[in-house]
């Protein structure tokens, strides 16, 4: 089990979560204008998951319901 970071790192992670998601979606939606398409936007949004894993440890990731993950995969496939 990995150790959690300080309260400052956790709060900054929570504050930056929404701007990172918005910027990632912006890059994805305007991917046809840039080299690489929407891939950089997906990489930006995936970095948020890595940031959460570093800030909060891996304990929160194990608590996610498998039904929610399955629903997210289905929605992603339908959007694709």
Can you put this structure into words, describing what you see?
74% of the residues lie in helices and 0% in strands. The chain has four helices and no strands. It has helices at 7-29, 39-56, 59-62, 66-79. The mean pLDDT is 86.
Features:
single chain, 80 residues, flat
Number of helices: 4
Q: From N to C, what is the helix and strand string?
A: HHHH
Return the average pLDDT rounded to an integer: 86
Distance between the termini: 35 Å
Tell me the β content. Answer: under 5%
Gross morphology: flat
The profile of the biggest β sheet is:
none
What is the CA-atom radius of gyration, in angstroms?
15 Å
Q: What's the total number of strands?
A: 0
Give the low-confidence spans: none
What is the helical fraction, as a range of percent?
Answer: over 70%
| Helix-and-strand structural type | mainly alpha
Question: What's the short version?
Answer:
With 80 residues, the chain is mostly helical. It has helices at residues 7-29, 39-56, 59-62, 66-79.
Present the secondary structure layout.
Elements: H1 7-29, H2 39-56, H3 59-62, H4 66-79
């Amino acid at each position: 089990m990995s150790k959690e970071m300080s309260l400052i790192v956790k709060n900054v992670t929570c504050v930056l979560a929404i701007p990172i998601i918005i910027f990632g979606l912006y890059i994805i939606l305007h991917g046809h204008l840039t080299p690489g398409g929407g891939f950089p936007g997906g990489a930006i949004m995936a970095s948020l998951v890595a940031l959460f894993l570093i800030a909060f440890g891996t304990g929160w990731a194990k608590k996610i319901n498998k039904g929610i993950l399955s629903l997210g995969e289905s929605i992603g496939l339908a959007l694709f």
